[in-house]
Design brief:
mainly alpha, 7 strands, about 60% helix
Length: about 450
């Protein structure tokens, strides 16, 4: 009887709910507060300060006392300026504009906040900070910090569209170009591209553990002591030993040139791991080139002469168990091929995976003519898959050019939010200035 009453109660409740006009659940009252510009400004400003504390641990001897930064954001009806002033008690007070977008979308102001917070962490006063030249460090930090804000995650931040377009075809800047040449923050598209590479370099240094050792604070202190120093040479002097030990352990012979650690090869390898994936794959040409480099094995004869052969040749000519050097090279090759597998286009992955499987069997001790034949056949299937992928891409490009209007194909170029447009809104800046002068709100 109780069960019947319970069922009738549930049915009546369901029927009553069914007859209601609205079925929406409201978790917030209509008058609930929504975060405003002051909230977003404070949050982004604190991200700069927190990043400074994480990457500048102040473990270097001789640093002056840290200068603390405080942030001031005016109320919605206040008058906001962008400036920094010394404050009592060894502090710097940073004033942010009333409108969040007035500084968060301005590359010059983002870089300035990065300079204020990071150089204050090193103990440099505002007057001393003016002597500090431009550096890739501040460009990379500004983009890195802004990309952390979910409110700013759009085509401007959060991804690396320009860097991916170049890296997918095997095009990377030399490290000295990033370290020595810093475009002005208002230089347009060249600056946007530069910020992507600067952020990648900054994140790679963080990932290597260089910041925990205080190398970045030594680097910035070195620039301050000698503003005209060659920043590429200073970077090499401070970071080389640490990065060499880190990269050789991680990437093996693929970051060496003539047996010596190569900073540019390290940068390219790390950038590939961030920029390329199965959803953002390599181009066919770059994948084939990278594959042939990966399967090249260095052989030395008794006289010390060396030559490079492919794994297919090695498998056909090898008699008996390979020595330790060959085993290490094969292991490094398999690591590199596995990386390339996860950067390859979808139509290629099945054949590529089969080739890696055959090479793995060879590495694990399956020697003989049949193994060599299996590797050669698997390589032919892989190269055939590359050919099909290339043909498919060409057909799709031709179809796109014929069937899709130019306005659709280049919709981002014609949109208002394209990342290559001028970032700051000059009209709103002029309007703010006019309102301040006239006393209008």
């Amino acid at each position: 009887m109780k069960l019947k009453l319970m069922v009738l109660f549930l049915l009546s409740a369901f029927a009553a709910a069914w007859t209601q006009e609205s079925y929406e659940f409201k978790f917030l009252d209509g008058d609930a507060a929504v975060p405003g510009d002051s909230y977003y400004s404070q949050t982004l400003a604190f991200r700069f300060r927190n990043l400074a504390r994480l990457t500048l641990p102040r473990v270097t001897g001789g640093l002056p006392r840290e200068i603390l930064c405080t942030f001031h954001v005016p109320p919605p009806d206040g008058k906001g300026d962008f400036k920094a002033e010394p404050d009592r008690g060894n502090k710097i007070q940073i004033f942010l504009p009333e409108r969040f977008s007035a500084w968060s979308e301005d590359p010059r102001k983002l870089e300035q906040v990065a300079r204020w917070t990071f150089l204050s962490r090193l103990g440099l006063s505002l007057e001393q900070q003016k002597k500090m030249p431009h550096s890739w460090v501040f460009a990379g930090i500004a983009r890195r910090t802004a990309s952390d804000s979910w409110k700013l995650r759009n085509l401007k931040f959060g991804r690396f569209p320009a860097a991916y377009a170049l890296a997918s075809h095997g095009i990377f800047p030399e490290l000295k170009d990033i370290l020595e040449t810093v475009p002005d923050a208002a230089d347009g598209f060249s600056r946007i591209m530069y910020e992507e590479w600067a952020q990648l370099l900054f994140e790679q240094c963080v990932r290597s553990g260089a910041m925990r050792k205080g190398l970045l604070e030594q680097y910035l202190a070195g620039i301050y002591r000698k503003p005209d120093v060659n920043q590429a040479e200073l970077f090499r002097e401070l970071f080389y030993s640490h990065l060499a030990a880190y990269a050789k352990k991680k990437f093996g012979r693929f970051v060496l040139t003539d047996g010596v650690f190569d900073l540019d090869k390290w940068f390219r390898r790390e950038a590939e791991r961030v920029l390329l994936s199965r959803f953002l794959p390599m181009s066919v040409a770059h994948l084939e080139t990278s594959y042939r480099q990966a399967v090249g094995i260095d052989l030395r004869d008794t006289k010390g002469n060396s030559r490079t052969i492919s794994i297919v040749e090695l498998a056909g000519n090898l008699h008996g168990k390979p020595d330790l050097d060959l085993q290490l090279q094969l292991a490094e090759t398999l690591v590199r091929l596995t990386e390339l597998l996860y950067m390859s286009p979808p139509l290629v992955t099945e054949a590529f995976s089969g080739l890696i499987h055959e090479i793995t069997s060879f590495r694990n001790g399956d020697f003989g003519k049949q193994t060599a034949a299996n590797i050669a056949a698997a390589e032919k299937r892989f190269l055939r898959a590359l050919e099909i992928q290339s043909l498919t891409e060409n057909i799709l490009k031709e179809a796109e050019n014929r069937l899709i209007p130019i306005g659709e194909r280049y919709s981002l170029s014609f949109s208002e939010n394209v990342y290559s447009d001028r970032i700051s809104d000059r009209a709103l800046e002029i309007l703010d200035h006019y309102c301040k002068r006239t006393g209008m709100k």
